[in-house]
Amino acid sequence: MLQPVLKSLPCVQRYPGNPVLTSRDVPYDSSLVFNAGVIRWEDGYAVAFRNDYGCSQAGWETGERLTGTNIGLALSSDGIHWNVEPNPVMEVKDEEVQRVYDPRLTVIDGEVYMTFAMDTRHGLRGGIAHTEDLHRYDIISLSVPDNRNMVLFPEKVNGMYLRLERPMPVYSRGGKDRFDIWLSESPDLIHWGRSSLVAGVEDFPFANDKIGPGAPPVRTDKGWLVLTHAVDRDDSRGKNGWEKAWTKRYCAGMMLLDLKDPSNVLGICRKPLLAPEESYETEEGFRTHVIFPTAAIAEADGTLRIYYGASDTVIALAEAKINDLVDACLAGGC
User: What phi and psi values does residue 137 have, to the nearest 5 degrees?
Assistant: First the structure.
């Protein structure tokens, strides 16, 4: 069934100079730069980004494929103009592990953690690593397959670490994509359990395929503001990007969770926070019509900076007032 045209919320403004980070900014082999974690670091900002390399669009169309993935690091004084480090900071590839990708950064009690996805010969795993300098990462936890899109809460709740995640059941969800958002807790970031469903695909009116966590939650006076991805599939869609056929559309969504019990949903925005509209989201890139929010930085003036991957190709930035986003979640109900 043909899916409707979707529009971004009017309270959200894209940075007019988008995209803010591309493969052209990377001093080593780079084809696609996207899905990045961003935190405040020292007197500015730091971004850990996914870097796919080894193939151009022209090469892809003649049968070549991307040859690898690593994680790069860039620093910035303003969160807009970035200086990319001369070498990747993380790449894992051996007989079992095929790649590590999609980093998210979270600061908890002054310590920096990165969650990531890991493709292995025996399934897709979600991981957590600790770093002291953003250059060296010690992996402290890996999930069983299949699980990814993990994000950590920036503080303990009721004495426990919390993470949102997107396990990927197939048999138990009808043999197709029907991936939902779950919450798990841990006493030490290593042992995880007491898992509970937070929201299902059916709770987001503009999704019919899957939903999942996007950026680490942001604490507000009224609850945890959580940015999500939300996917609708339309098999009538044709070639969208490098692929012969790309039938999915990714939007950014959001919901508000209770501060003391984040398994309790206070409200879900009934419309997309960001829908693909600009040329770098709809016309240019590896897989177009993809917006994937991966970082949210609360500024002192009440603005939320939203970093997102666009078309699985570049990193872009949008901004909105936190109060407007909270109100949109509460107005939507759950």
Answer: -125, 130
